[in-house]
Write a structure and sequence with these properties.
The chain is mainly alpha-helical. It has four helices and three strands; from the N terminus they run ββααααβ. Strands 2-1-3 form a three-stranded antiparallel β-sheet. α3 packs antiparallel against α4. The longest helix has 23 residues.
């Protein structure tokens, strides 16, 4: 059992990205570290630190239940995409660490899916 993120366009040929629940948790923890904070400290993620205390455009993605709650709107996708693309661009310059490579591969797939969401003006579905 796992989690898949995909465009809400009802097109089964659209790209998607999938993880085990543990894999998605590790991916989001990594993104939070890149942004300079620990996800486990945040309200809703095990801690009590307010999301308003961090400055990241990735909050809609990081502060989202795994497969429950509202999907990301096209506006939220547009807000997170530039930062995800920037992280992707930076990561391609960093060596051959297999864990980093896995995170970058996952990030690349997510960026592709979000671009489709924006091109088609549809939500990013967590399912």
């Amino acid at each position: 059992m796992g989690l898949m993120l995909f465009p809400g366009d009802d097109d089964v040929t659209s790209p998607d990205v999938s993880w085990s629940y543990t894999g998605f948790s590790l991916f989001r923890q990594w993104l939070a570290r890149v942004e300079g904070f620990a996800l486990a400290e945040m309200d809703g993620c095990g801690g009590d630190r307010s999301w308003s205390s961090v400055s990241t455009t990735l909050a809609p993605l990081l502060d989202h239940p795994d497969d429950d709650g509202p999907d990301l709107t096209p506006a939220q996708c547009a807000a997170v995409l530039p930062r995800l693309e920037a992280i992707l661009g930076q990561g391609k310059l960093n060596g051959s660490d297999p864990v980093l490579q896995r995170r970058m591969d996952d990030l690349s797939q997510l960026v592709t899916v979000i671009r489709v969401c924006l091109a088609k003006e549809v939500e990013l579905i967590f399912g």
